[in-house]
Amino acid sequence: MIEMQDVWKTYPDGSHALKGISVKVDRNEFVYVVGPSGAGKSTFMKLIYREERPTKGTIFVNGFNLEKLKQRKIPYVRRNIGVIFQDYRLLPKLTVFENVAFAMEVIEAPKKIIRKRAMEVLDLVKLKDKLHSLPTQLSGGEQQRVAIARAIVNNPSVIVADEPTGNLDPDTSWDIMKLMEEINFRGTTIVMATHNKEIVNTMRKRVLAVESGKIVRDEIRGEYGYED
């Protein structure tokens, strides 16, 4: 599903965010990316959905070589990658339904299909009763569930989640993780960067530990391994 081959990322100021990363993530895997702040986790995540491009190396996602991808193909590849952020990034003037539907409108899906699919995912995240609410009328956990619904509405094969529980209280964080586990169970590959030690140590998925731009640990049913 995802493969990086000797991937380096150097920023204009000369800092090396990633140094020779090589890793494979199989279909239907659930992978945690952990490590200290500034280790290169966010850069690693951004490379998967082509927000950033590597300085050197090769990245395959869903069978596509991201470096050889023609510009017109980028939206098609991104359609198959759902992205979830720590700060939700909902459109403030749109309702819950409109935020989710918007992700299908940009790919010009028929209105009838948009309505049906948006309602399906809002049912999955238990927000059908909030259809007409604006983001400001929701709790943090509800906003994140809208963000998850938006990320999965186009049936992506991969979800990239960058600190999705970072702004949430412990109980709400667990609700979000149960939802993520359900999405993974339904067949979606999930790559999630997190600082939440309790979640990683309890759920025991594959763990990639990144330090100073390198993968220093790759463990099946791994632990968090840091004190922060």
TrEMBL record:
GO terms for biological process: cell division. One of its GO terms (molecular function) is ATP binding. Coiled coil: none annotated. It comes from the Bacteria. It is found in: Cell membrane. It is a peripheral membrane protein. Residues 2-227 form the ABC transporter domain. Keywords: ATP-binding, Cell cycle, Cell division, Cell membrane, Membrane, Nucleotide-binding, Transport. InterPro entries: AAA+_ATPase, ABC_transporter-like_ATP-bd, ABC_transporter-like_CS, ABC_transpr_LolD-like, Cell_div_FtsE. One of its GO terms (cellular component) is plasma membrane. The keyword Transport applies. Homodimer. Forms a membrane-associated complex with FtsX. Part of the ABC transporter FtsEX involved in cellular division. PANTHER family: CELL DIVISION ATP-BINDING PROTEIN FTSE, IMPORT ATP-BINDING PROTEIN. Belongs to the ABC transporter superfamily. This is Cell division ATP-binding protein FtsE. It comes from Paenibacillus solanacearum.
